[in-house]
Design a protein that fits this description.
Strand content: 5-15%
Oligomer: single chain
Strand order of the largest sheet: 1-4-5-6-7-2-3
Number of strands: 7
Helix content: 40-55%
Largest sheet: 7 strands, mixed
Shape: globular
Order of helices and strands: HHHEHHHHHHHEEHEEEEH
Radius of gyration: 21 Å
Length: about 300
């Protein structure tokens, strides 16, 4: 984001905004599930902030959060309309950390898994805003009431509905990072190698596979695939059509979890995120994003390329 500077007032406004940009990005991205839309909302927030100026604002953080959250709520209407004409399953735009950004606070702090973002898609925009503010960022109901201009009682009701809905679809658990990494690597090896017996072993019986190609990748399923047998057929057919030697595999953290990123040459081809059973020993959800429009922020690591040569 570029800002015109020159006057002390503008410089101060820029510094204040940039000091809060990480928080604003996390809030808005978790509300929208789209990096591009998040950047647009932050640009609108910056314009509103710089036009107003910091003078006389006792709490710049609260002021900026209020602007960003309400801009994001307005943006939701645009996203919902866009989704109505979207081809096939819609998945959030993955936040992929490369080696240089692995310690980026935006990517490691307040990380909401891709699987959780999919659940949040089923909430109303207001329920999702309240859930993100309260459950992810720890805002009190009274603070949220000021941000979204609702009564504390209304916010409590929204929070209760959102929490019940999320817990019904996603129990509170998180597999140990080492278990996640091992299960992810085991699944990817079996998937790329077309190893049917290994896939049958690691996939849960009720596994679901989502493939988001947005109509830009062929073939991509037009609806999620449920059940282990169908999932194995889908995954092995991909491996048979596109040999693993054509794709370059990298393990990266995606929305805070270990995941696989496939490159075709220098261009990102797919991001694969696995969701595990509570025990952590089986894969019960596979999220594959192949839509190039959702992979524009994914870059190959140059240092790894040089080491491989």
């Amino acid at each position: 984001m570029t800002h015109s500077t020159g006057s002390p007032v503008t410089d101060e406004a820029t510094d204040v905004f940039m000091n809060h940009r990480e928080l604003l990005f996390g809030l808005v991205y978790n509300m929208l599930g789209s990096v591009a839309d998040t950047e647009d909302v932050l640009q609108e927030t910056w314009l509103a902030w710089s036009g107003r100026g910091a003078d006389g604002i006792a709490n710049p953080r609260a002021y900026l959060v209020r602007i960003a959250v309400n801009q994001a709520l307005q943006r939701q209407a645009v996203i919902i309309r866009r989704r109505e004409t979207y081809v096939g399953p819609w998945l959030p735009e993955p936040l992929v950390a490369d080696d240089e950004s692995a310690d980026d606070p935006v990517l490691r702090g307040e990380s909401v898994s891709l699987a959780m973002l999919v659940v949040l898609e089923s909430l109303t925009p207001l329920e999702r805003a309240v859930f993100v503010l309260n459950e992810v960022f720890g805002y009190a109901h009274t603070e949220i009431a000021d941000i979204i201009d609702r009564t504390p009682a209304a916010v409590r009701q929204l929070a209760h509905r959102a929490r019940d809905h999320v817990l019904a679809r996603r129990p509170r658990y998180r597999a140990h990072p080492r278990v996640r990494q091992e299960a992810t690597e085991r699944f990817v090896r079996a998937a790329l190698g077309g190893d049917i017996s290994e896939l049958m072993e690691i996939l849960a019986p009720d596994v679901t596979v989502w493939t988001d190609g947005g109509g830009n990748r062929k073939p991509a399923g037009l609806r999620p695939v449920h059940g282990r047998d169908k999932a194995v057929r889908l995954i092995t057919s991909y491996a048979a059509r596109r040999g693993p030697q054509e794709l370059d595999l990298r393990y990266r953290r995606v929305n805070g979890d270990d995941a696989a990123v496939l490159f075709q040459g220098e261009a990102p081809y797919a991001v694969m995120v696995m969701d595990l059973t509570p025990e952590g020993d089986r894969v019960n959800g596979v999220y594959i994003v192949t839509n190039p429009d959702k992979l524009t922020h994914v870059h190959k690591d140059q240092d790894e390329d040089e080491e491989d040569q």
